[in-house]
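Protein Record: Sequence and Backbone Structure Tokens
======================================================

Structure line: whole-number tokens from a learned vocabulary of local backbone shapes, matched to residues.

Purpose: to set a sequence beside its fold so the mapping can be learned.

___
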Amino acid sequence: MELFTPDFGLVFWMFVAFILLFLVLAKWGWPVILKSMDSRADTIDKGVEYAREAKEQLDNARAEAQKYVEEARERQAEMLRDAAKMKSQIIEEAKKEASAEASKVMEAAKVSIEQSRKEAELQFRNEVSKFSLDIAEKMVRKQLQDDKSQQELVNKMLDEIEKN
């Protein structure tokens, strides 16, 4: 049972050693340990602050990237609208030009048809007058075959000349 009941001398020297150890640690050990712990706490605080700043910067970068993406989409939509407008304008201009060209062609065709009709009418008149003259000539020859009818025609023409 001696192990469980220590001597007074042993307890005294253990107490003295403890006090000496405590004083040495209090003078040189604890300040170093506390300084080290404070330094470590500051490092951790700085790391946390750095992480917060990094997170804020990342969030800002994401927001800015999203803004640029939205802006790019708006520009793309605007460009597509402009392209559609230009396409419509080009189609409309092409239709107008085609319509104007068709009108010119139609007008030229009308003029050509009218000119051809007039030429055909003139040719028809010339041929009708030629046929009329041929018919009149044949009739006059038939009527003037005998001398009596020739004499009457000459007298009739002379009378008309005298009247004028």
